[in-house]
């Protein structure tokens, strides 16, 4: 015979289990879209620089995405200039946008080479590519993303 106390405990456990399962997507999440908002110098040294990349991450899914980490490689005119990773936990609201800041370390020779190449060019714009992965707390696979565009000089 089950006592009323055990029934209540079992009921609470069942509710807890159903709530926990409701946060796990039942199908693969659609990859978030990422837009580069800005790049700001944080630390400028002779050998190493730190840049803050402000990224606008849009969640096209009808449920929240608990972002565990975001990593990427940034290229200018096809040459890698920086790599970044953010391990800040951020929840992307369903069908909404959030801003994520990623601190990136780069070396002077990478940036200097790009600046010299661009200075010798007659082009008034610079093509950029940012490719990376989003890791969710509730999904076992990394979700790739890619964003490219043109910076006008």
Largest sheet: 8 strands, antiparallel
Low-confidence segments, ≥5 residues, pLDDT <50? 15-23
CATH fold category name: Immunoglobulin-like
Distance N to C terminus:
78 Å
Task: Describe, in plain words, how this protein is organized in 3D.
- The protein is of the alpha+beta class.
- It has a single domain, classed as Sandwich (Immunoglobulin-like), CATH 2.60.40.
- The protein is 20% helix and 53% strand.
- It has two helices and eight strands, in the order αββββββαββ.
- It has helices at 4-22, 108-119; strands at 33-44, 48-59, 65-76, 79-86, 90-92, 96-107, 125-136, 143-152.
- Strands 1, 2, 3, 4, 5, 6, 7 and 8 form an eight-stranded antiparallel sheet that branches.
- The longest helix has 19 residues, at 4-22.
- It is elongated and about 50 Å long.
- Residues 15-23 have low confidence and may be disordered.
Question: How would you summarize what this structure contains?
Answer:
The chain is α+β, with helices and mostly antiparallel strands and 153 residues long.
């Amino acid at each position: 015979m089950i006592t009323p106390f055990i029934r209540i405990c079992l009921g609470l456990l069942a509710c807890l289990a159903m709530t926990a399962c409701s946060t796990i997507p039942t199908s693969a999440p659609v990859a978030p879209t990422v837009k580069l908002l800005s790049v700001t110098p944080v630390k400028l040294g002779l050998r190493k620089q730190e840049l803050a990349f402000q990224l606008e991450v849009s969640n096209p899914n009808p449920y929240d995405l608990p972002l565990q980490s975001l990593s990427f490689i940034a290229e200018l005119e096809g040459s890698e200039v920086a790599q970044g990773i953010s391990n800040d936990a951020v929840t992307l609201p369903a069908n909404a946008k959030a801003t994520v800041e990623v601190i990136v370390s780069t070396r002077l020779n990478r940036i200097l080479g790009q600046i010299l190449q661009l200075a010798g060019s007659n082009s008034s714009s610079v093509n950029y590519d940012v490719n990376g992965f989003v890791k969710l707390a509730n999904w076992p696979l990394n979700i790739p993303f890619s964003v490219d565009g043109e910076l006008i000089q």
